[in-house]
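From the shared-data thread, chain only:
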Amino acid sequence: MAEEAVAGGRETGTALPERRGTLGAILLARLSLNAPMRIVYPFLPAISRGLGLPLETTTLLLTARGLVSMASPLLGLLADRTGRRGLMLLGLVALIAGALLVSAEPAFAPALVAFALMGLGKAGYDPAMQAFVSDAVPYERRGRVLAILELSWSLSWLIGVPAAGFLISAAGWQAPFLAIALVGLASLALMAIVIPRGAADRAGPRRAFELQSSRGVPSVPGELRALGWAALLALVVSLLMTLAIENVLIVYGVWMESRFGLSVTALGLASTAIAVAEFAAECASAGLVDRIGKHRAVLGGLVLNLLAYLLLPRIAKGLPGAVAGTSLLFLAFEFSIVSILPLISELAPEARATVMALNVAATSLGRVIASLSAPRLWAAGGLVFNTRFSAGAVLLAILLLGLATRKTMAPPVAARAARS
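Structure, as tokens:
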């Protein structure tokens, strides 16, 4: 397959990302960054009650987080110009500040600022980290390494949601955020130690082409014009996948509470099935994506995702069916979204951090749209309306991805290698 012939990712670089200590520090940092993203959804009703606000207003916290995360391309451009390490550390600092603020002030305005800070932290850290790893790991093995790092996503739910449920029951809705701040502090110290300045303070690979604005400075619009339609297509697919899953995830907590009468603690425990499904999907991606091809893996995951959205309202008549249906849904989504990362990482290796940041921005835009659509669809028609909307978004993603052949979606560096 064309994409597997890629010679990319072979730039001269360090093997640091594949060392256990470095991988462990990156995993812990991402666990702390992902936890506030994950624990909010099952406990949105509890947060709404704590703030004394309706669900529609509370979801504006997610809107603010998503809007700020859309600044990620500017941070990615900075990481391409100045290096990865600094952005990774600054991302953790923003997370700690936001988590401390929301744990200290139980009011809507401070919570809005706090969620924006936590979103900014993830928007700065993730693309810089993904570029750092992609700089050093060859393309044919990159899918496995990135998938291993994505285990932090499922683990943040598997560990964070039950723990948050207990903490909320014992000390109120703000208590989990103080715990997140403490884990973030530990992660910041470890990252500063295990990633020395020389390993990631340098900028990314030298560009084969110069993207200049009128003043001779690289710009995000310039990056977009140079990417080509294959890369832009992949970014739109990421946006649609995220929009679809968030459109269901945002109403997950209120659905489970209203339909099955689960307490906060029981909801946290029941939600572990989702994390187990995501963990299985990340393991499957680690084992399969490099073998079967990135394009094929994403397309297969999207088809399974579409089927899961259509099936969920039919099988969620009782609690076991609801847990099984949502588990299938999240398994399919997680496999798809993890499998697309190595593909995107090589579509423009000369501007890798910027491209990975554009992907963060695309997924953030999907979350912003869902934060506005999900509660309104829920109010209009319940779970059926949410899942139908999500199924339509995934169907569009399948059609867009199907427009690109493997040859078209093959990373540009493969074509350059073939010509040389």
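Residues 1-15, 202-220, 410-420 have pLDDT under 50 and may be disordered.
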